Amino acid sequence: MPTPVPPPAAAPGVPPALEPEACYRVVASRDRRFDGVFWTAVSSTGIYCRPSCPARTPARRNVTFHASAAAAQRAGYRACKRCLPDAVPGSPAWDLHADLAGRAMRLIGDGLVDREGVDGLAAALGYSPRHVVRVLTTELGAGPLALARARRAQTARALLEGSDLAVTDIAFAAGFASLRQFNATMQEVYAAPPRDLRGRSGPAAPAGALSLRVAVRAPYAAGAMLAFLAEHVVEGIEAVAGTVYARSLALPHGPAVLAVDLGRLEGPVDAGVRQVPVTAWLTDLRDTGTLVERVRRLLDADADPVVLDDQLGSDPMLAPLVAATPGLRVPGAVDGAEVALRAVIGQQVSLAGARTVTARLVARHGRGLPAGLAGVVPGVTHLFPTTAALADADPETLPMPRARGRALTGLAGALASGAVRLDRGWARDDVRAALLALPGIGPWTADYVGLRALGHPDVFLPTDVGVRRALVPLGSEVAALPALEAAWRPWRSYALMHLWNTLMPALPGAHPEEDS
């Protein structure tokens, strides 16, 4: 494991065996970059903390290190009430390496184990249940059931802090099977009954809505994220009002609407982690944890901005861009299939044209929101069309050239049948190969899907028109891209975003001071 000084050249990872002396040096220096990478357990107090916990550094003889919060809980430790170690963003190594453990953690975060059990998780990953349990236990110190339990506890605490739901409702919303199980778990993890965890309360949520907070690593370029999302808004499923981005989404138990306020980050600027306020309207409270995980993907919450900015900021061409927008993220997706289908719609047309065509498809093939959700956010009226609906559409009737219409329905069919899956369970190279095997899907489309739907940190699009436009004022040429790209690895996705960000119009009402 890299030592805290100097900064590592790549994101801190989670090695199969944590090196104790290196970890203790991190704890002694309170290095925030390692929050979410490993957890510190203190035998003299019976608690576990994030590495940057402001409490007095424990004696080395009393400390052990764990690769997940679930592993610390499994060893009998409870969460520190001061640094809230279970609430930190996940490890950036999950996206950097995207190995089996990382892919499994994404699916567990999405609630797959709660819905389908360990067998469902194993099937989604393409391995036997025994192998998945063995890998997760070896690399993260806990099996899928323990990891899912830790996720449920974290979701429950977020609801206790940010909603006025009854405790019984929170228990089932977080995925617990019974109130007794819920009480026992919260007592074990937090050394307190649920009623004592009713903590800080933010602005009151609208009637029928939940008020939540999503942790992101700081600095966080919220204004740039908002500008990108606003530039890609599709009428009917998305809307931007001031600094709030809102959209509909389909969750496992029903549709939902969310609103993310990117102009009001919470928490001290120098705390290493900020909180993004989210308001959610759910059909079924059991989807709460899944919604939070998908918002985290959308916001690229787990990226390590310090490592990213250190490396990309050392590049002479990117240095002024990094200095102007520290903490820039790659906008992710709440639905990988939607990103892929919208990418095909946008092939060889302007962004404005793609938005218009997509809005027409939403109006014709999308489902209207049910009565309880329609109208909660002005302009958000529909769900994006299902893959089955677009697979059944006649390409001749779609508002696009016939070849692109056939590509769209072919991709929709592959997604509907499971021949291509974009839930982050497959290895990225396998997804790319499966996409390229489909008619009408070329490298730009496949790599754009990898960038946004799969959270790939090392994607670049050298043929993109926007990239070529962005290079001109920077005094570079397309011919220089191969050499530039080599210096940007393994963070080419973030270099790409810095180039695209130079083309984004400023948003009225955005607050750049919130970016840092």
UniProtKB/TrEMBL annotation:
Cofactor(s) this protein requires: Zn(2+)
CDD domains: ENDO3c
Keywords of the record: Activator, DNA damage, DNA repair, Methyltransferase, Transcription, Transcription regulation, Transferase
Gene Ontology molecular function terms on file: alkylated DNA binding; DNA-3-methyladenine glycosylase activity; DNA-7-methylguanine glycosylase activity; DNA-binding transcription factor activity; methyltransferase activity; sequence-specific DNA binding; zinc ion binding
Domain of life: Bacteria
Catalytic activity entry: Hydrolysis of alkylated DNA, releasing 3-methyladenine, 3-methylguanine, 7-methylguanine and 7-methyladenine
EC number: 3.2.2.21
PANTHER family: DNA-3-METHYLADENINE GLYCOSYLASE, DNA-3-METHYLADENINE GLYCOSYLASE 2
UniProt source species: Nocardioides zeae
UniProt keyword Electron transport, yes or no: no
Coiled-coil region: none
Source lineage: Bacteria, Bacillati, Actinomycetota, Actinomycetes, Propionibacteriales
Listed GO biological process terms: base-excision repair, AP site formation; DNA alkylation repair; methylation
HTH araC/xylS-type domain boundaries: 102-200
One of the Pfam families matching this protein, by short name: Ada_Zn_binding
GO cellular component: cytoplasm; protein-DNA complex
Transmembrane intervals: none
Name of the protein this chain belongs to: DNA-3-methyladenine glycosylase II
